[in-house]
Amino acid sequence: MIGERTSEDIKIRLGSAAPLPKEMTMEVKGRDLVAGLPKTITITSQEIREAMADPLRTIVDAVRTTLERCPPELAADLVDRGIVLAGGGALLKGLDRLLREETGLPVHIAEDPLSAVAEGTGKALQELSLLKRVTNKDR
Q1: What is the pLDDT of residues 9-22, one digit of tens each?
Q2: Whose CA is closest to 56, among 86, 99, 106, 1?
Q3: Does residue 51 contact residue 40 with C-beta atoms inside 8 Å?
Q4: 118 and 88 in contact (C-beta within 8 Å)?
Q5: Which end of the chain is more exposed for a tag (fewer CB within 10 A), N or C?
Q6: pLDDT for 14-62, tens place per residue?
Q7: DSSP H helical segments within the chain, as ranges?
Q8: Domains in the chain, start-ordered, CATH in brackets?
Q9: What are 64-122's pLDDT values in tens digits?
């Protein structure tokens, strides 16, 4: 058993959505759930990738579903300009490559993915009337 902070550190250091050029290892300290005692183990980036496979498949499936439902004009823009990843998930090594392989579209990472979502929300709120029109279009 490990804590949330250790888990996040493992994800940042070893996590990847696609195989790495050089697989990495990391020593992790936690508590053995069987014996109940502190223990140190060595984990690999491949093990972490396997542990993340189901959530990554969910992300890929959601992107595919969204692309299937998007209007033709937007689809044309996506073919030309590609997908831009924003938020903390964009920092996962190889996520752009995985999505590129799965969708056949160009995939880019936002210049500052951690603040891109907040900045985009702020810009959307500055254009509240446009946001209301866009979100109510299909209703």
Answers
A1: 999 999 999 999 99
A2: 99
A3: no
A4: no
A5: C
A6: 999 999 999 999 999 999 999 999 999 999 999 999 999 999 999 999 9
A7: 4-14, 45-51, 53-69, 72-81, 95-103, 113-126, 128-135
A8: 4-51 (3.90.640.10), 71-135 (3.30.420.40)
A9: 999 999 888 888 899 999 999 999 999 999 999 999 999 999 999 999 999 998 998 88
Q: Both tokens of residue 90?
A: 């964009």
Give the residue among 82, 10, 97, 20 at the shortest CA–CA distance from 48.
10
- Residues comprising the chain, all counted: 139
| Residue 109, token pair as written in the block | 């990472």
The answer to whether 103 and 64 are in contact (CB under 8 A) is yes
CB 23 within 8 A of CB 14: no
- What tokens appear for 72 in the block? 């033709």
